[in-house]
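Supplementary Methods, section 5.1.

A reviewer requested that the exact input to the structure prediction be made available. We therefore reproduce it here, unchanged from the version used in the analyses.
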Amino acid sequence: MSPDATVDQVVRFVDLAGVLANAVLGGIAARTARLDVVGFVVLAILSGLGGGMIRDALLQAGPVVALTDPLYLVMALIGAGIAFIIPFRGRMPRLVLALLDALSLGCWANVGAQKTLDLGLTVIPALLMGALTAVGGSTVRDVMLNKKPAIFGGNTLSATSALLSSAITVGFYAVNSQWLGSIAAIVSATALSLLARRFDWGLPTEVHPARRAKQASTWLRGWWSGIGNRGRTGDHEQDRQDAPHRPSTVDDPKEQST
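The structure derived from this sequence is encoded cell-by-cell as follows.
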C-alpha cells in the first residue's frame, strides 16, 4: 500500500472520529440548553458536519460529501445518541473529547485546504476554506444557541490552529508532498490547540492607543514638573542654609536704645 493511500485512510479515520467527537459536543451543548431530542440531533449534525457542508456548498464541486457518504451522517447521529444518554461529567471523558476535537480541527483544516487546492484555486481561498471547514460547524452551533461563537474568544485558539494547519498544507502542497503535509498539519494544529487549552492562551482583544498616549503625556508632565519642584526645593534649602551668614537687615535694638 502506498504512503498516500495509508495517509488517506488515517485522515478518513480521524475525520470520522472528529465528526463523532464534535457531534457529542453538539449534544452536550443541547443538554446544557435543556433541548429535546430534536435539538440534540440538529446540534449534533451542525456541529459535526456543518463546516464540511458549508465548504462543499461554496466550492460547488459536486454533491456535499456528508450527504453522499452515509457514514458521516451515521456518526453524527451516534454522537447525538451518546450525548443524550451519557452526561459526560467525568474528567476522563472530557479529556478524550478535547483530544478528538483538537485532532479533528487540524484534520478538517487540512482536508478543506487540500480540496480547495485540488480544484485549482489559489492560496487565499485554500486558507479560508481550511479554516471554515474546521470551525464552521461550531460557529453555526453557537449562533443557533444565541451564544458568542467560540472562535471570537476562548482558550483553544481554534481559528489560529485551523489557519496554521491550512498554511502547512499549502506549503507542502506546493512541493508536491501532500502526505507529509497532512501529518505535519494535523500534528501542529492539534499541539497548538491543546497547549492553548492547557495554558489558557488567547489572542489580544483590543488596543487603546489614545489612552496610552494620554497616560504617557501625563507621566511626562509629572516627570518634568517633578524636576522643577526639585529645583525650587533645592533653591529654598540653599536659602535657608545661607540665611545665618547674611547680614541682618533689622537694626539692633541696643543701638536704637542708645
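The CA atoms of residues 27 and 40 lie 5 Å apart. These observations are discussed further in the main text.
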